[in-house]
Structure formats: structure tokens, C-alpha cells
Amino acid sequence: MFELLKTDVSSKARLGRLTTTHGVVDTPVFMSVGTQASVKAIDPRELRDMGANIILGNTYHLNIRPGMEILRAAGGLHAFMNWQGPILTDSGGFQVFSLATIRKIQQHGVEFRSHLDGSLLFLGPKEAMGIQRELGSDIAMVFDDCPPHTSTPRELRAAVERTMRWAGECREQPRAPGQMVFGIVQGGINPELREECARALIQLDFNGYAIGGVSVGEPEPEMMRAVELGEQFLPADKPRYAMGLGTPAQLVELVARGVDMFDCVLPTRVARNGTAFTRKGSISIKGGAYKADFRPIEEGCDCFACQNFTRAYLRHLLNVGEILGLRMLSVHNTRMFIKVMEDVRAAIAGGSFGAFRREFAANYVPTQKVLLARAAVAER
Amino acid sequence: MFELLKTDVSSKARLGRLTTTHGVVDTPVFMSVGTQASVKAIDPRELRDMGANIILGNTYHLNIRPGMEILRAAGGLHAFMNWQGPILTDSGGFQVFSLATIRKIQQHGVEFRSHLDGSLLFLGPKEAMGIQRELGSDIAMVFDDCPPHTSTPRELRAAVERTMRWAGECREQPRAPGQMVFGIVQGGINPELREECARALIQLDFNGYAIGGVSVGEPEPEMMRAVELGEQFLPADKPRYAMGLGTPAQLVELVARGVDMFDCVLPTRVARNGTAFTRKGSISIKGGAYKADFRPIEEGCDCFACQNFTRAYLRHLLNVGEILGLRMLSVHNTRMFIKVMEDVRAAIAGGSFGAFRREFAANYVPTQKVLLARAAVAER
Lengths: 380, 380
What we know:
The structure is a homodimer. By secondary structure, the first copy, chain A, is an alpha/beta fold. The first copy, chain A, has 16 helices and 16 strands.
């Protein structure tokens, strides 16, 4: 199901190919987030046009709305949202972290009080895998306990032990035809815990391995460290997925650390605030500097927004609250992330990833505002 | 510039062709409203795909944001919004009505206190035509005084006299190359005033004539009466435009009364509340009845939304606040209005408009909610 095609000489970067029931995914890959069965503001045709070939759905949110009765009747998530390509579903484990105030961790799972109407919802290994089986995702994630980066050593250990135990239970659950299941390595920045968790999951022989417990409000060096600690134990012949990351510059650095798959809400979330990503960093299109700037968001960009509209026009739309403005920034940002990964793959294939990485880092100036947006968990 | 191709035998319905600088418009036609240089939630490619070939812009709103400095620098409205087809611009006369609380009518125009920042803005015949010249619209509207339907006879007469005087001043203003100018007939449901106003405008020899003072909160019979009163005096060889109207059933009835052109915010405005138009009337897609309804909004509809998504999915999107939901309803509703006009034209051409009109009226059940939405002036 996963072929490792090439490994970079200057780093741990890898070129791979993941074959799913709904199509082939070239890695490294950026996956767009469609939490509630829609990549925010973008339609499936636009996604295909911009080269998106795998998207995410979320077990917790879809189970609440529209609910499994409707998703079953629709014939699964692909049919419901009319997306014919691969789908990876998150298990709800991230909501153990992001919805910490409305959940209680128990022996066999987590009890949530619905963020919507207060009704009770129980998610554990059995429930999360059952929902993902019915959703019919190409890749299901195990149900894990994702602890905050401020956890005490005792809390972190408890989360890792729970994650390992639940992973074993997830492994035993029935799957949809052809469905892959990925394990999730937890352990914060504790080397022993990361190793213990990784080794336990590898014993269970999953189809791929994710590094979780990142994108939970930690500073960037801690995030990089957590990925490095998890990655080193993972088998070369299985895909590795860093969950919930990151900015374009971070993605390139994480590829260099051996990561194959990424997902992040940043492209669409910051678009709704008027922020556009470029190879030089992000810019706030609402700013007065762009009011008579008749260039596209980024010169040379092949996205629909850059092919059709100017910064001045998009600024106007954003400032008067026209939906087309945030739509077009969502399109541009999503295409930008996908194109960076296309360039990454071409560089690895051509043996020039080291030079690409240096040049990318030299051009890209990180914006504090965007790093903070990444830290703000709400949408995933 | 306008060719009258055929007149229906059973009614006053007309088939025509209006040639503008940016393309040919077959009439009767529905024009989508892009008040602030965007048809709400829809991009220009989608508009073209659904057969839109003329859209509206608004003098008052565009003059405030983005402002003429930017629109001039962009090279006019077509270039600014990247719409290569014909554009008709409203003059700001409707805002004399809709922004009545923040404006003062004076001898040579109207002083507005900007709804945005309270700054003063003066619009009169000279200003409104100057702005429309710089916008470079294919059809400019004269600056009129649009009175509410609750006006006293004295107020109505004053508005008509002002409208006639200002029309004369508008007629003298320079135009953009190839720009047409339409007069606007006011007079409420007073036969003498409608006649007097129509005759005065015809003396000025405009390129077309609009019936104004409708879609200002009046009941439907009064609206129909106002159009009939205005239409009877208009020359056959010029296009007639009923401003701000209406529901699909009303459009068909207005075509039967000799109207060639329409604009209305209904398709996109009610879409944002989850209302979809069908040949049987409008339906609220958010309703529980559609939660597991896997049919398209309307069977047989060729719009992108109906070709790709089910009622159940759109209902879910609308209920969770996903932008794709209101986008797709905006697309469907806009295509529905355009398709009704395509069918109207085919029926007139084929000599079957009488039957079409009867069948349309028999199928279409008007919804009170939608009629009220039409009456609520906010967006145009």
C-alpha cells in the first residue's frame, strides 16, 4: 500500500506513493481539512483543480452533525460530500485535547458533553473505529489520548499508556473494505515515552504511523523536537504523518525530518481573516498597502485567485465582507500549500531537496500572527 | 442597439436583443446583482457557466468602497472585478429611498451621510453620471428620486418633478464610449404622474426606460399596477427594465406585461438564509424534511449544485454554517432565475408563451416568507 520511492541524501526527506481505495497519493503530501464534510469555502471541483488528492474528515464532528444515521443512508462520507478521492478521518482523539472542558476520560474511552446541545457522547476505540468504518474513509486513525503540552510527567505517562492500550483495541476492530488504519505516537518531548509508544504501536503493525501531541499550543522548537523523537523509531516502509501541522516553512522542515503527510487548518482559517500565504511569508491583504495594488496575491502563482483577481480587488472584497474574498484567499492558500509539496516532491526526485530547503527557508519570513493562529485550536 | 425580434400574440411579451460594448444580451433577461463589485458568494466563472451575461453594480456603494480613485486606477469596474460581460450600473437613486434616514434631498441632488463613517457624500445628476462614466458600465441609469409607496400625493408629485428635471440634466452629461443611458419612470400608482413622467423621459430620447418606484415595500398588486401604468407609454423599439423585481412567478407575469429586463437580490439573499427556488415555489433546505433527502434541490436542474450535491448534504452544510452551503444555494437560485428567462425566451420564440405562462403560474406556489424578503430593502 506504501512504496518508498527515494530517500534524500542531504536529509531524511522521502518520496513515496500511498495507494488507497480511492486513488494514489504521492508523498510528501498536504491534506486539506474538511472537518464537517467540507473544506471550508471550497468546492470539490476547485479542490481537484488545485491538485488536492486527499482530504480529512472528523469522527467527532461528523458523528454529531449530520450524525451516522444520515451518513449511513448516504452511503458513507465520500458519497455524502461528493468527494471521489481518498479521505483520511481523524478519530476524535484530538477533541480529547481541544474539548478538554467538556469531556471526561474513562477506562474505555472518553465521555463528551456535546458542544452543541449538551447531550452525552461516548467515544472509545470501539466507537471511533466503528464510526470510521461506516464513514468508509480510506485511512482511519486510532483513537488516542492527546495531552496538552503543559501536562505533568505523570499525566503524560497516563496519556501514553492509555494511547497504547486503546491502539491495541482499535487494531482488533473490523474495518471498511480496503481501509487502512494508522497508529498515533504520543509522548510529548519525553524521549523514553515517545520511544515506548512508538515501539508498542509498531508491534501492532499499523498501515502507517502518526506523530500526535503536536499542534497543541507548544512553541515551534518543542514541536520539531517531538516529531524528531517520534520519527526515529518508525519503520521506513510505512508512511509517517505529523498531525495538525503547520506553516509552509514548517512543512518543508518536517519533510526534511522524514515526515510524509500533513494536515492543517491554517490555509483556510487565516484566509477568513484576510491572510494570504506567499513564498516570502504571509501577508494581510486587508492592509492599506494593497488598496491600489493590481498585482495578483503572488506573481507566478497558478491558482484561480491569482489568475483572475488583483490584491486591490480582494482587499476590497474582504473589507466590505463579500464572501468571494475569503473564498479566493482560501483557494490561494490551499493551492500554495499543495504547490509547495509538489515542489518538495520534484526536488527530492531531482536530487535537489537540500538546495530547495535552504532557498525556501531563506525566502520565507515567518509571521508571528500566523504562528499564533496555528496555536489556537478550534477548527480541526 | 436594441432589436425587437418578436412580440407574443397572447400577451405583451417581447423577444429582443440588446447590443452593448461588452456583448449581446438576449431579452427578456434576468440580471444578477453585484452591488459591491461581486455577485454575492459567486465568482465570474460560475456566473458565465450558468449563463449570466449581464450583471449590476451600484454607484452609491462603489463610490464609497473601494472609491473612485481605486476604480479609476483599476481601469473601470469591468477590469476591477474581472467581469468581461455587460454591466448595468444603478445610479444611487434607489438609495434615496433605501437610505432615507441618512440623506437630505436638495435642489441639485441628494446629500448622504455615509452609512459607514458618517462622512458627507453628494450625489446628483452630474455626480452620478460622472461616476458611472468612470465605472465604464455598458448601461448607466439616470439619477432619480425613488419615493416610498407610502408617499402622499404631494410628495409623489415632487419626486416625479425632481426625477424629470434630473433626467434632463443626466441626459446632458458626457458618457463613457458606447455607454447607453436609461431613463427611470416614477409616479407610483398614479396614472397621470406615470404618464407625465414617461412622456417627459421619452422626449429626452434615452436608450431604454426603466420603471422605478417598485420593490419599495408595496404589495404585489400595486407593483403590477405600477408597471402596467408605466409600460403603456414606453416606445416599442426601446428596452424596458423593471427595477428590483422579483420572484420567478412575478418575472413571468412582468414579461407578459411587456418588460424586457429585471434585476433582483432575491436569489442570493434568500440563499444565505437557506431558501432555494424551484419551479413549484421556494423551499427551506434547512428543514428537517430534507435531512435524509438524497435528491438534488430540483430534479432536472442543470446547475452545479444540483449536478453535484443532495438536499441532505446542503442542509447539513447550512446547519453547521459551512460557506459551501450558502454558495451552492446562491448558485442554484441564480441559475434558476436565468433558466426561467431562457425558457421564457424559447417560449416566446416558439409561439407558446401563453401556455408556458399558464403552466408556470399553475405550478408555482408563492411563499409569504420570500415575498416579505423581497419587500425588505437592504442589499440593492
